[in-house]
User: Which sequence fits this backbone?
């Protein structure tokens, strides 16, 4: 795969991380398990672990449930935004490491994508709820499907 695609996917997985911060690391772990990504011999080889796969999968499911609760802070607040930057950077680095590309560039692209995805996702969701005059739940569930679909596309390249 060309270097531009790898970097675009690293940025893309970051954008998805802006939507769901724990779904993308779980998607990366599943991609490693399924043989779509090869992190063997990289600093991210620990993603091959069954414990990591199980833990990240449980966290991702928990995030999907927690997102529906009213007390969850906005994704653009400082702590959730930092989590999205870190998670996006990590996932972007994994994609680049798997393709034998500089993982630091992937980390930077994923982190920037995480910021952009967080703000775009927040505004998009808020505006859709207002424009369509529907409950936030319906937009949130649609956002879950979009995030999962995009995550699968980016890690299965």
Assistant:
């Amino acid at each position: 795969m060309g270097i531009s695609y790898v970097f675009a996917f690293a940025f893309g997985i970051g954008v998805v991380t802006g939507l769901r911060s724990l779904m993308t690391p779980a998607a990366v772990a599943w991609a490693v398990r399924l043989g779509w990504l090869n992190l063997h011999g990289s600093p991210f080889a620990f993603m091959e672990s069954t414990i990591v796969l199980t833990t990240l999968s449980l966290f991702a499911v928990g995030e999907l449930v927690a997102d529906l609760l009213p007390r969850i802070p906005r994704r653009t607040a400082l702590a959730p935004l930092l989590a999205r930057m870190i998670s996006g950077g990590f996932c972007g680095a994994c994609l680049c490491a798997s393709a034998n590309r500089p993982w630091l560039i992937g980390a930077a692209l994923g982190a920037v994508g995480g910021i952009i995805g967080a703000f775009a996702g927040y505004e998009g969701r808020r505006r859709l709820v207002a424009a369509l005059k529907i409950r936030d739940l319906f937009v949130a569930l649609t956002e879950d499907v979009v995030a999962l679909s995009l995550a699968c596309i980016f890690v299965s390249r």
Q: What stands out?
A: The helical segments are 3-19, 23-33, 50-66, 78-98, 103-132, 136-155. The CA atoms of residues 58 and 134 lie 29 Å apart. The chain has a mean pLDDT of 94.
